[in-house]
Structures are given as structure tokens and as C-alpha cells.
Amino acid sequence: MSLAGTIQRGQKEITIDYPITEVKDAIMKIFKDLPGKYVLRKNDINEVFNTYHFPVMSGINPVIIDMSLKNNDGKTTTITITASNATGSFGSNSILEGHIQDYLLVLGKVLSNEQIEDVKKAINTSGCMVLVLFAMTTSTLVYYLLSVLI
Predict the structure, then answer these.
(1) What pTM did the predictor assign?
(2) Average pLDDT score over residue span 83-101
(3) Alpha carbon separation from 88 to 14, 81, 97, 110, 133 (Å, rounded)
């Protein structure tokens, strides 16, 4: 039996009205200004193929983002982005797609030249949902275990 079919992934492809050079600059700004959330490691960027492979630190569910950029006409860029669970972590497709939406929210704010403090607030707000889901899952598990044991 292959485990490849059981891998959870979130994926999205969008075309945005920004040239690829601006998108690349914004991605690098995210790495620079938010290193605790979006981690840039050696060899995570392939400039020749416009691809990125990097971890996203998010408390109990770290993920890996794979992203590629395509220059369409000098004015627009197509972004293909995939999120998968990091080794040892577990998350459903909807959680992984949430990570993609969070990243795209941050990228959009940086492309729109919003202040980095506003971007950080957006990140902190989106992380609260993970804690709520964790608390709900934990309480459901405890309830189930108590009902089985009693």
C-alpha cells in the first residue's frame, strides 16, 4: 500500500495584477520581516525556475509551502501554492488550505504596501483559530476517553 495517496495537501492557483519582480520582492520582505513565522533556509529558493519551498511555523501544526511563480505578460503573475504537513504534524486539507489563505493574505498586504505592524496583526488573528480547534479537539478526546472508561 502506498502512503502517497494519504498525504494531506491544500492547493491553490491564482493570477494577480502584479509583475513577477514585485511579487518576488514581497516574498523576500515577508521572509525578512516575519522570520519566526515564515522560515527561509539555505536552498529554499530556486531563482531559475521561480520556485520556493519553505516551512511555516504555526504552533501545533507546522506546514511546508511549495510555491511557483509564472510571469504571464510582464503585468500579471500566476502563483501556484501547495501546503502539506511537515514531518510529524497532522492537519486536514481545510487546515492546510487555511495556511495558504493566511500566506496569501500576508502577501497581499505586503504587495499593497501595508505597514508591517498591520501584517503582524493579521497573522496573530489567524493563529487564534488553530488554538480554538486544538482546544475543541482536546476536550472532545477527553470526553470520549472518560465515557469509555466510566
Answers:
(1) 0.76
(2) 81
(3) 29, 21, 18, 31, 18
